[in-house]
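User: Predict the structure for this protein chain, please.
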Amino acid sequence: MYRTYKLNELRIENTGEEVILSGWISKIRDKGHFVFIDLRDRYGITQIFVNEEISGKELFEKVKKYKNEWVIKVKGTVVERSSKNSEIPTGDIEIQAKNIEVLSRSKSLPFETDETGNLNENLRLTYRYLDIRRPRMLNNIIKRNDMLFSIRKFMNENGFLDIDTPILAKATPEGARDFIVPSRTNKGNFYALPQSPQLFKQILMVAGVDKYYQIAKCFRDEDLRADRQPEFTQLDVEMSFVGQEDIINITEKLVKKVFKDVTGKEVNEKFERMTYDYAMENYGSDKPDLRFDMKLINLSEETETCGFSVFENTVKEGGYVKALVAPNGEKFTRKYIKDLEDYLKVYFKAKGLAYIKKDENGQINSPIVKFFSEDTLEKILKKLNIKNNETAFILADKYKTVHDGLGALRLKLGEEFDLIDKDVYKFLWIVDFPMFEWSEEENRYKAQHHPFTSIKIEDRKYLDTNELEKIKTDSYDMILNGYEIGGGSIRIHDNELQEKVFEKLGLGKEELKDKFGFFLEVLKYGVPPHGGLAFGIDRWLMAMLKETSIKEVIPFPKTNKGQDLMTGAPAEVEEKVLKEDLQLKLLEINKD
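Assistant: Here is the predicted structure, written as structure tokens:
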């Protein structure tokens, strides 16, 4: 027997008991005539007391040579501590050791497991098994378990069936690049790892399953960032005979339940709702962080004939002139403003960043006000509602550049000037997304969500016009503190409507047959009205735990280059395997 108690369980009531405990040495303190060991397991810490009188001279001398992170088994008696520790549950007692067995020794660690500073990320990922021993990381892993248990309990109690779908499937166009897997038995053909179980869950509705869910592994071969990984975990949900309100209502209940089980806090109010158009117009983002204000201000009307040609030409060409007003005006030096402008130029292809500063005495400072008449300047300042010691930043460009740029600038300033209230949680529904968006690169319309998203009944008339941008969908995203944690839509169940959407997307019959042939056949066999959504488990948990990277809530994540530093993946494979799986043709292409 390795233990009779876990290391968080013993209390003053256990005084006098003979116990067996096992764990890692978290800390060892040699006080000369006695030695203290903090013994740690997943559950907590218990102090071990060793002295020559009770433990014997041989054991006492051996213990002095023990090192941190060795694994030991202790037999001894529970006694009351003379110096109690109120910070741990076992702080009233300690174990007088009579026998200690070393179960495993440890090399010196590359970093201490009780270290709380900013450790090198690559070092942490290389020794992830040691990183998980750190209290914060271990707590995140435990919270992940709590989250998944809470989800499964809620879904099963509400009549959903947990059904797994294939990992090896056919490639379908879902927005990102697929990871492909060669088929050895079907020469020249490939599987694709699923970006999501989208088509399968819709097929299950046609099959009559009615309520489906799955905690699924998904894969996307795309550029990585703090809230994105090449493989990720998704809560996938689909329901039959439902509308948007049905899905929103049950999803809110799920999210509130999971939030309480993970954070211990209750959310009682209904989640705020905001249309996609309102979010973009006012926050420059379809996932606005509502923990601070600073809305975008439209100056297009005020600058249409303002005397400043950059603004005038932008409006004339159908673009926008928009601004946001930031506090802490004294911190906006010319260099800092230039850095902000460079940031917008590099990441959003902005042509420039104009500004108007109002100092603490109400004096205006700006290189562009010389172009304005007094009347025009007064109108602009009134619209901005700029106060003393504030600065207005102005972008003039196409819709996407202006809104994406100012939306990102808003978040950047919010973080850098501590405008965000990190103690609150702000849940939000974004609804009514556009069906189509124009792709400058491909010179055609693309589906903003996916081509199976249902169009609002009142907007279907625009399918026969050139006003596709007016078409909105029965779609919804859930936002938590500026992160999109989930999203979905009602699906098209009318075959004629589906064909018309494909037509507007420029997908011909042969292309449709190649990409969606099997699914289009499914849609001919009685499709119930249905809809669903998917949550990114990793991003959702990250937001709840107020971490800044999903790597902090994934047990074994990849680096930003998609590498697993612990195992060495991805790695080369034998040339024999490449020849067998990819045929010599692909191998030769790779060598070229």
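The chain has a mean pLDDT of 93.
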